């Protein structure tokens, strides 16, 4: 590999690219990474991290209201968006610094510019510099999709949402549904229905069968959204949340002959390798599962396989996921519908309860836990929760589902009382 400038050149310093760079370097490879925006990528800069911090911030609205039932006088409490926005931005800056430091400590060279692929073993930087590498890793992530309709540019995407100058009074967050009567496809329908009900009770206007036809900016700066059902909505802000497209446009991959999917995703095998033997890809750009822990695992497995003499693949079975809505949803394994299709005869255990805190707060918001079991031993094949802290609760329970434990194993575990998670071992 000595004839090349580097053993590995990584394009994109996000979740997958940073992990792959660091691990490859720790195995002794000479590594460089190019990043056209900010080190840390989507998760750190404009995804998981700022999103979760804003979710915490938003929840104080209900917490402060409920606090009065717990004896606290919170009258006069007000919200200042710029304080939250700037504190979140400061935390993101801190994490960005740590990511850069980690790469530096591992002797990974960082080029703060865009890179494009020019051959099986070569890339070109925006500055014009040409670099050769024995292996190239595409870890360029995905980019928010915006529909091709008149006025779409008046909307923003998740890229811009974290730095709004002011908090809009009204916002429309659009999920375009084609024949649509559902949101959050892939999650258990009953759990999603509960979220829709609870959010409507909180005053959120959720509309189905509303395909957006056009967006017009009015003289007073507000937006007029026209639906294909004849309805219109007036709003101050429109956020497109219709999915993310693999980030491969202009990357030079077609010219080099790398196979791409219809959506532009880089096609790879289980070993993260493309049809060009020296070019690999991990993370969102492959459009397998668009989640940070998956991008990290793929990057790690790639580096161990190619530079650590330890070939291994990622296991995509039983990936726990969450929707950080209010209340949050968390899920692992098969939904009820999927389990029925796969096993036919299944059993569903449920617990529909009001969290103790919500009872004292006089908040009429119930949680729902669902356990899907299959087979003669009642193996737990799916667990779906909606309720306070469900993401925190599900991560631990996901270990049991991954380990193929049974309903009896859950029943045999003594409840931790009083807690919401005890419902998992008390289901009827
Ligand atoms: C709003 C939002 C919230 C999310 N919340 C969660 C969550 O709660 N949990 C979760 O698991 N996942 C979440 N995700 C998904 C998660 O952020 C991604 O799955 C993850 O970041 C993918 O990592 P990656 O390495 O594939 O790509 P990225 O992290 O996107 O990194 C790709 C990097 O490549 C750079 N790049 C692209 N092209 C070039 C080029 N030609 N030259 C140089 N650099 C280039 C980009 O600037 C970017 O920094 C969220 C995503 C969004 C948008």
Per-chain topology:
Elements: E1 6-11, H1 15-26, E2 31-34, H2 41-46, H3 48-67, H4 81-105, E3 109-111, E4 115-119, E5 122-125, E6 130-138, E7 142-144, H5 158-161, E8 171-174, H6 189-201, E9 212-217, E10 223-227, E11 232-235, E12 237-240, E13 244-246, H7 253-256, E14 279-281, H8 292-307, E15 321-323, E16 329-333, H9 336-343, E17 346-354, H10 356-360, E18 366-374, E19 379-386, H11 390-402, H12 407-412
Parallel strand pairs: 1-2, 1-6, 2-3, 6-14, 8-12
Antiparallel strand pairs: 4-5, 5-6, 7-13, 9-10, 10-11, 15-16, 16-19, 17-18, 18-19
Flavin-adenine dinucleotide binds next to helix 1, helix 2, helix 3, strand 4 and helix 8.
Helix content: 25-40%
Q: Kindly report the average pLDDT value.
A: 96
* Number of discrete helical segments: 12
How much strand?
15-25%
Write out the distinct hetero groups bound to the structure: flavin-adenine dinucleotide
Instruction: Give the CA-CA distance, first to last residue.
Output: 61 Å
Shape: globular
Major sheet: size, sense and barrel closure?
Answer: 7 strands, mixed
Provide structural commentary:
By secondary structure, the chain is of the alpha/beta class. Helix content is 31%, strand content 23%. The protein contains 12 helices and 19 strands. The strands form 5 sheets. Strands 1, 2, 3, 4, 5, 6 and 14 form a 7-stranded mixed β-sheet that branches. A hairpin with a 4-residue loop joins β5 and β6.
């Amino acid at each position: 590999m000595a004839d090349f400038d580097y053993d590995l050149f990584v394009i994109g310093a996000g979740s997958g690219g940073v992990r792959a760079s660091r691990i490859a370097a720790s195995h002794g490879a000479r590594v460089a990474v190019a990043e056209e925006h900010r080190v840390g990528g989507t998760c750190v800069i404009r995804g998981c991290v700022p999103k979760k911090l804003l979710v915490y911030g938003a929840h104080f609205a209900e917490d402060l209201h409920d606090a009065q039932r717990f004896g606290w006088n919170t009258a006069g409490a007000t919200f200042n968006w710029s304080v939250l926005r700037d504190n979140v931005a400061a935390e993101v800056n801190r994490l960005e610094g740590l990511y850069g430091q980690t790469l530096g400590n591992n002797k990974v060279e960082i080029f703060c510019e865009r890179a494009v692929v020019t051959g099986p073993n070569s890339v070109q930087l925006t500055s014009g510099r040409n670099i050769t590498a024995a292996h190239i890793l595409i870890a360029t992530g995905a980019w928010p999709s915006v529909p091709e309709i008149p006025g779409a540019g008046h909307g923003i995407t998740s890229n811009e949402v974290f730095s709004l100058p002011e908090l809009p009074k009204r916002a429309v967050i659009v999920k375009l549904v084609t024949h649509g009567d559902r949101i959050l496809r892939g999650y258990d329908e009953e759990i999603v229905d509960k979220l829709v009900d609870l959010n409507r009770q909180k005053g959120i206007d959720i509309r189905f069968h509303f395909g957006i036809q056009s967006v017009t900016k009015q003289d007073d700066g507000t937006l007029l959204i026209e639906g294909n059902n004849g309805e219109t909505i007036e709003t101050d802000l429109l956020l497109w949340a219709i999915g993310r497209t693999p980030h491969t446009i202009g990357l030079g991959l077609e010219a080099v002959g790398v196979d791409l999917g219809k959506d532009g995703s880089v096609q790879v095998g289980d070993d993260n390798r493309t049809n060009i033997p020296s070019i690999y890809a991990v993370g969102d750009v492959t459009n397998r599962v668009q989640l940070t822990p998956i991008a990290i695992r793929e990057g790690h497995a790639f580096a161990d396989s190619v530079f650590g003499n330890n070939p291994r693949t990622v296991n995509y079975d039983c990936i726990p996921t969450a929707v950080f809505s209010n209340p949050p949803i968390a899920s692992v394994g098969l939904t009820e519908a999927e389990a029925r299709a796969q096993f036919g005869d299944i059993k569903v255990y449920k617990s529909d309860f009001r969290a103790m805190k919500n009872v004292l707060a006089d908040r009429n918001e119930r949680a729902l836990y669902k356990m899907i079991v299959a087979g003669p031993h009642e193996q737990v094949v799916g667990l779906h929760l909606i309720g306070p802290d469900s993401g925190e609760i599900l991560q631990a329970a996901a270990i049991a589902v991954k380990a193929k434990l049974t309903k009896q194993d859950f029943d045999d575990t003594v409840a931790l009382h009083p807690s919401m998670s005890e419902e998992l071992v008390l289901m009827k």
